[in-house]
Specification:
Blueprint lengths: L8 E2 L10 H7 L3 E2 L24 H4 L2 H14 L2 E5 L2 H10 L5 E6 L4 H12 L3 E6 L4 H6 L5 E5 L11 H7 L3 E5 L4 H4 L9 E5 L13 E5 L2 H14 L5 H12 L1 H20 L6 E3 L6 E5 L3 H10 L4 E2 L9 E4 L13 E5 L5 H12 L1
Parallel strand pairs: 4-5, 4-6, 6-7, 7-8, 12-13
Antiparallel strand pairs: 1-2, 3-9, 8-9, 10-11, 11-14, 13-14
Helix pairs in contact: 1-3, 3-10, 4-9, 12-13
Bound molecules: pyridoxal-5'-phosphate.
Pyridoxal-5'-phosphate binds next to helix 4 and helix 5.
Pfam families: Cys_Met_Meta_PP
GO molecular function, one term: pyridoxal phosphate binding
Family: Belongs to the trans-sulfuration enzymes family.
């Protein structure tokens, strides 16, 4: 790895065994050395002076990507690669599999991931089976698949998958989409997974102003395979996006803690509200799904909100709601299910808005 100038090390002084995740989020991936900037620059370059290891961005990376990769790699405990988007990480993992490979994916999980895999199944590229997220026995019975693509908690139903039991049984690759939990909530590589992926578009970026994906592999050869796939597919992140994602990661611990505190409070109040038929909340994290009796009621409630915005996506500083079944890929989700991404606003203002919309 070559830095922006001779001798630059990204967070070289950070011993990943000694510091807590909160500290790593701040300190890992910083350039170090006399005269180095504390924040990695936005290196907007496709090409580099010949004669060094780094010749061309798409194949050799940039210092900006590498700073972000060093930071998330330290947090998840593996070798990281940055991609153009969350969904590009799945494209890369799929690209490493042979034609006809067997892949399992949760019946309820990010619609874009299921859609990509369904397409690959339809064209004969892969053989894809969907499994109920919490049916651990069914996942264990699928242990011979080439890839178990897990996501926990799931988007949008907030089911929790038993990663440890499934990874212990698996004979092929186990990948975990850790977008909802973040490395501060769950470290899948420690639970036996081979690959962790993130849509950094969501909580890691944290401000709804970028698209970026990350893979973190336990094994260096798996990481190299994913990096080679990034080069082949051209699924590279932008310089500004990588810089923004790292800037977002620096404050992830405090955003996550505060947004989780608010989510816990609101989940408890929603549970007590007579208009709500079901609340899905896994006990921690910033995402809640609550159910109203039908689509019409849910749309009416969403339409009555003043502070909480109706928009897709999640994990930013602003609270967002979406009735998820409107999407073709999520038509099997309960019609009145509202996915609620809890932001950084004052919890009492959020509750006032919700309570008045619920009537
Ligand atoms: C949004 C999302 C993705 C896709 O990420 P993009 O950055 O939009 O490509 C993947 N998994 C989960 C759980 C998501 O919420």
């Amino acid at each position: 790895m070559t830095g922006p100038s001779e001798g630059t090390v990204y967070g070289g002084g950070v011993d990943t065994n000694d510091w807590s995740p909160r500290t790593l989020a701040v300190a890992a991936g910083r350039p170090e050395g006399p005269g180095e900037p504390l924040n990695v620059p936005i290196v907007a370059a496709s090409t580099f002076d010949a004669g060094a290891d780094r010749a061309y961005s798409r194949q050799d990376g940039t210092p900006t990507w590498e700073a972000l990769e060093a930071a998330i790699g330290a947090l998840e405990g593996g070798h990281a690669t940055a991609f153009a988007s969350g969904i590009a990480t799945l494209s890369a993992v799929v690209d490493t599999l042979p034609v006809g490979a067997k892949v399992c994916v949760p019946t309820f999980s990010y619609a874009g991931s299921r859609g990509l895999l369904a397409h690959a199944h339809g064209t004969g590229r892969l053989v894809v089976t969907e499994i109920e997220p919490e049916d651990t026995a069914a996942w264990v019975a699928a242990a011979d698949a080439d890839l178990l693509w897990l996501e926990s908690p799931t988007n949008p139903t907030l089911d929790v998958i038993d990663i440890e039991t499934i990874a212990a049984a698996a004979n092929g690759l186990v990948a975990v989409d850790n977008t909802f939990a973040t490395p501060l909530g769950q470290r899948p590589l420690e639970l036996g997974a081979d690959i962790v992926v993130h849509s950094a578009t969501k909580l890691i970026g944290g401000h709804s102003d970028l698209l970026l994906g990350l893979t973190i592999a336990a094994d260096e050869s798996v990481a190299k395979g994913l990096r080679d796939a990034r080069t082949r597919l051209g699924a590279t992140p932008g310089a500004l996006e990588a810089w923004l994602a790292l800037r977002g990661l620096r404050t992830l611990p405090v955003r996550l803690a505060e947004q989780t505190r608010t989510a816990k409070l609101l989940a408890a109040r929603l549970l007590d509200h007579p208009a709500i038929t079901r609340v899905r909340y896994p006990g921690s994290g910033t995402m809640i799904a609550f159910e109203l009796p039908d689509a019409e009621t849910a749309d009416k409630v969403i339409g009555s909100l003043r502070l909480i915005r109706a928009a897709t996506s999640l994990g930013g500083v602003e609270s967002l709601v979406e009735r998820r079944a409107w999407m073709a890929g999520d038509a099997h989700v309960p019609a009145g299910l509202v996915r609620f991404s809890v932001g950084l606003e004052d919890p009492e203002d959020l509750w006032t808005d919700l309570a008045s919309a619920l009537g």
